[in-house]
Amino acid sequence: MIPVCRLEDLPAGDSVRLDITPPVAVFNADGELYAIDDTCSHQDASLSEGWLEGCLIECPLHAASFDLRTGKPACLPARRPVRTHQVYVEDGVIHVLVASDAGATGDGGTGAAEKGSAA
Predict the structure, then answer these.
(1) What is the top-level taxon of the source organism (predicted)?
(2) Domains of the chain
């Protein structure tokens, strides 16, 4: 697990980028925490710099949006999903368990819910 930040340092509606390879973005969507690959599958824009609305993140480059729960694109121009990662909160610190390529389902997710809770 990779420590991200303290829970209080990621308020609702905000995101943080993990500079790992590949980069991962962690979002607080109205109290629910999600982690996805930070690179738009359409072009190489940082999704953590996009606009968050509910469980959708809109890419700042061409307005493709992705569902944070599944990683699937919600509209064009993106056609391929981004990976989702598991998020945990332990002792007030947000952690991400990065999905391995071998464990990815190819539909953008790793299977079960990847969200954590800020509650």
Answers:
(1) Bacteria
(2) 2-97 (2.102.10.10)
What's the sign of the alpha-carbon dihedral 1, 6, 12, 25?
negative
The residue assigned the tokens 């539909």 is 107
Closest-CA residue to 88 (of 32, 30, 17, 18): 32
- Sorted by sequence, the CB contacts under 8 Å of residue 11 that are 6+ apart come out as 28
| 59-80 tens-digit pLDDT | 999 999 999 999 999 999 999 9
> How far apart, in Å, are the Cα atoms of 59 and each of 3, 15, 53, 94?
25, 13, 12, 24
**Dihedral, 107, 62, 34, 25 alpha carbons, nearest 10:** 110
Its pTM stands at: 0.84
